[in-house]
């Protein structure tokens, strides 16, 4: 999530101290990289409290006496491993670090959760521990994708697979709310990611979603293909989690490949190093734009609380960005924005139904004899 585009709802002078629960045991490099990244961020942001949740002894060994006043450690005796079944593990391991994080938010002891752990476990823990917002069947992970016209929102990128057309239509609604209310995009356009731009193409769920979204008040522009994503044909692009996860990871891998190829060419004598001297500033700007670590992670939309999920392979640098994004998301009060917008949608539908019911019956048609 691009922090620079998020609009905080906190009025000047009304800011309060945030408390972020961090799953210190989640991720490929936990707890070392998670703790180090959190510690670095905490030192630069003394006005926000971080709660490191996990094996207290291991966390303290990493901190090695460097704990800052705004860092607290909460012990959790269990952890959900990456190879475990997410939902079953979350139900069985009540004292798992991700469950403890959600419990802290539910009890009002934390304002948000950040995790680099098992995505499925994080989603399951959020649903079981926090609950879904009214009117939401499935939550969705949303991420901002970089284009020349600015970022667009892609969802779902990994919350739940095998979505129905109804689920995709709900993702479209939540994505539009996120884009408009949080990112400040006026009347965002919505599209479905499919195998063809023509209507009627794609899986049955895409066709069903197309019908549902077209019948709504969303600014639906139809289908977009994978090749058109970088052209920013829509402000919100909706797909199933499997498609979204493959798409974003392909983009990340492709950007890494391109910069690796450029690095190899610039090292090739005799002209490579000379060319780099002329291109260095431009390459640096492009590299920064495609630095996916700066996005931090993806907010989980549709649950009763602020939850941000970042890469399982995140190192301390990306963890630091993820903590910062979580703080901004907590300030923006994303769940409240979505709940308010969904409530207004429901009220508008009820009002429309009531207005139709009050229309008096038309008199029966009479036959007129034409002479």
- Secondary-structure element string: EHEHEHHEHEEHEHEEHHEEHH
Count of alpha/pi helices? 11
Biggest beta sheet attributes: 11 strands, mixed
Structural class: alpha/beta
What is the beta-strand fraction? Answer: 5-15%
Overall body shape: globular
Residue-averaged pLDDT: 85
Helix % is: 40-55%
Strand order of the largest sheet: 3-2-1-4-11-10-5-6-9-7-8
Low-confidence stretches: 8-14, 362-371
Number of strands: 11
Whole-number radius of gyration?
24 Å
Distance between the termini: 73 Å
Description:
44% of the residues lie in helices and 14% in strands. It has eleven helices and eleven strands. Strand 2 (49-54), helix 2 and strand 3 form a beta-alpha-beta unit. 43% of the residues are buried. With 371 residues, it is α/β, with parallel strands linked by helices. It is globular, with a radius of gyration of 24 Å. The chain has an eleven-stranded mixed sheet with strand order 3-2-1-4-11-10-5-6-9-7-8, with helices on both faces. The model is unreliable at 8-14 and 362-371 (pLDDT under 50).
In short:
By secondary structure, the protein is an alpha/beta fold.
Characteristic terms for this protein:
eleven-stranded mixed β-sheet, single chain, 11 strands, 371 residues, alpha/beta, disordered C terminus, 11 helices
């Amino acid at each position: 999530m691009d922090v620079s585009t998020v609009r905080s709802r906190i009025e000047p002078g009304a800011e309060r101290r945030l408390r972020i629960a961090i799953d210190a045991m989640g991720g490929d490099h936990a707890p070392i990289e998670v703790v180090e990244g959190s510690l670095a961020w905490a030192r630069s942001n003394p006005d926000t409290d971080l709660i490191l949740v996990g094996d207290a002894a291991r966390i303290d060994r990493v901190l090695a006496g460097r704990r800052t006043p705004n860092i607290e450690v909460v012990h959790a005796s269990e952890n959900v491993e990456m190879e475990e079944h997410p939902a079953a593990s979350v139900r069985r391991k009540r004292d798992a670090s991700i469950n403890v994080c959600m419990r802290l938010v539910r009890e009002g002891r934390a304002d948000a959760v950040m995790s680099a752990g098992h995505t499925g476990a994080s989603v399951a823990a959020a649903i079981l521990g926090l609950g879904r917002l009214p009117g939401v069947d499935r939550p969705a992970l949303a991420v901002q994708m970089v284009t020349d016209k600015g970022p667009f929102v892609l969802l779902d990128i990994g919350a739940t697979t095998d979505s129905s057309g109804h689920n995709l239509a709900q993702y479209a609604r939540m994505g539009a709310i996120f884009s408009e209310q949080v990112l400040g995009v006026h009347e965002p356009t919505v599209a479905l990611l499919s195998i063809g731009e023509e209507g009627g193409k794609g899986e049955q769920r895409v066709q069903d979603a197309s019908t549902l979204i077209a019948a709504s008040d969303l600014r639906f522009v139809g289908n977009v293909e994978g090749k058109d994503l970088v052209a920013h044909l829509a402000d919100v692009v909706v797909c199933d989690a499997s498609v979204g996860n493959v798409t974003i990871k392909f983009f990340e891998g492709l950007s890494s490949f391109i910069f690796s190829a450029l690095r190899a060419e610039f090292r090739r004598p005799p002209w490579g190093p000379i060319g780099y001297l002329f291109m260095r500033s431009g390459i640096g700007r492009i590299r920064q734009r495609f630095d996916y670590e700066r996005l931090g992670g993806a907010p989980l939309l549709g649950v009763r609380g602020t939850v941000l999920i970042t890469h399982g392979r995140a190192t301390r640098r990306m963890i630091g960005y993820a903590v910062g994004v979580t703080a901004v998301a907590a300030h923006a009060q994303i769940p409240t924005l979505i709940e308010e917008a969904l409530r207004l949608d429901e009220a508008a539908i009820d009002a429309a139904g009531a207005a139709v019911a009050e229309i008096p019956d038309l008199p029966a048609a009479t036959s007129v004899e034409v002479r």
